[in-house]
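Much of what follows relies on a compact textual record of a protein's fold. A record is reproduced here so that you can trace the correspondence yourselves:
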Amino acid sequence: MAAAMDWLPWSLLLFSLTCDTRAFYVPGVAPINFHQNDPVEIKAVKLTSSRTQLPYEYYSLPFCQPNKITYKAENLGEVLRGDRIVNTPFQVLMNSEKKCEVLCSQSSKPVTLTVEQSRLVAERITEDYYVHLIADNLPVATRLELYSNRDGDDKKKEKDVQFEHGYRLGFTDVNKIYLHNHLSFILYYHREDLEEDQEHTYRVVRFEVIPQSIRLEDIKADEKSSCTLPEGTSSSPQEIDPSKENQLYFTYSVHWEESDIKWASRWDTYLTMSDVQIHWFSIINSVVVVFFLSGILSMIIIRTLRKDIANYNKEDDIEDTMEESGWKLVHGDVFRPPQYPMILSSLLGSGIQLFCMILIVIFVAMLGMLSPSSRGALMTTACFLFMFMGVFGGFAAGRLYRTLKGHRWKKGAFCTATLYPGVVFGICFVLNCFIWGKHSSGAVPFPTMVALLCMWFGISLPLVYLGYYFGFRKQPYDNPVRTNQIPRQIPEQRWYMNRFVGILMAGILPFGAMFIELFFIFSAIWENQFYYLFGFLFLVFIILVVSCSQISIVMVYFQLCAEDYRWWWRNFLVSGGSAFYVLVYAIFYFVNKLDIVEFIPSLLYFGYTALMVLSFWLLTGTIGFYAAYMFVRKIYAAVKID
């Protein structure tokens, strides 16, 4: 039984990596069954734009409102993402068609937008804002039909259907601004198989919209809120003039279609990718290149080390050995504690905390438990896990601090619990002030900020202290050689041993292994896409750990061969060298992929990028440091020291 339990996690991992990528539902997320003419509630989530990066709540614009506005209770992740889920006045009944219905109808009078409202709507349209609605927790999508004609023959055109998240608020044409004021909802249902005497039940499996702009004069509305739309393409679009009041109708129609898609697979439409083959190719390419280079590096290092150790352990020609230069000559200084041991151990403790959090989040997400259907679940899980992983970060930091001859464990524990989280909180607070100034829903509300502070000082801080206490009390790491009282003089170093050159050299391999995945992650964050390829991400994470470890070992070996024993800080900095390339890539992505021109969106982008780069440097630096530390202890334990 115990052996079977041991194999279970590995079986799950193998299954999740080999199976086709599909939206997966955990027990407890139950489908909702609808009967004929049951109400299907349409809710609004937010307005987003990749140009401004500032989400706004739905009723920040003068849309038609229901009699009573009700906001959904949201989890931490939804609040941090800027979601503000609210009810709307759309009346949709299961499998019941609606030709045309007028919203905000008061005896068929059109809606009048004031000059201020018109200016705001026009501004949002020019900023490329999208509206996000949901029906039965399914996000609305706009169908895009792209024709790929490689041969130049019209008859051989292939239709490639893709979906755009949300729908465009409006469009501009020849310096005129037009609003999408008519929404054609197309909802797909799956009919559930039941026994003969039972009533049919339906499940919503897709939610599409065709937004249209139709001017006031072309819509014929009556007293019962019904309306008639112009036929064909004869109508003109509804223009919004920001310099005056505008009159218009907000209308919608509902069309239902039966679908073969089952409820469990309904998210697949939203997660379809046109470049899955490219993704697979890039991942396999990364795996092959990284493991090939890792194999070569390992072989060279192992062969060189064996030769070194064999030479150093020859007892018959001790004099030759003493004359030789190399890493053995610094054995009396290699474990000399570095400057600022408290800060080093605190940063490494935060790195361990991040490593544990990221590993668990990616693994759980890979098993399908944090799918996009669970809104905000990924961010909520990450926040809570980071808090609870404080006990492991504190333990690692405490033990290392004692090994480095530190004595003030309480101050060290406080430093570990506050240094990295304090920087993150400080940057986020400053950015949040700017978002508040823009009245965006992306601003974290004050009660949520207080709750996060309570989590930090009420959960994370005590757990870090607990872990630090036990780590500091535990036996320090056993270094195989004694440290001399007088430090050895370090010879002049070659140009390629410069710290910045080391960062450039060490960062290429880990960054090369993951930069394709970085593109998809950036697209998910900055262009409001869904990210769901956690099987790929787990593979990339393993490659990153392997490549960081091996490049760190190579760098520390070269440094010790150059008789420079100050490796503690240098190795931590150099191992995180790929973070420098992430920063360069983020700047490239900003210039080439995004259309951000204003100051505050640019500030948000680079502020959050700075946090990502800092976190990535801590993560990779910690992985490299511990790999190098194990390597250094291993090689000095293998040679005979007189």
Observations:
- The CA atoms of residues 337 and 576 lie 21 Å apart.
- The first strand starts at residue 42 and ends at 48.
- Residues 38-270 form one domain.
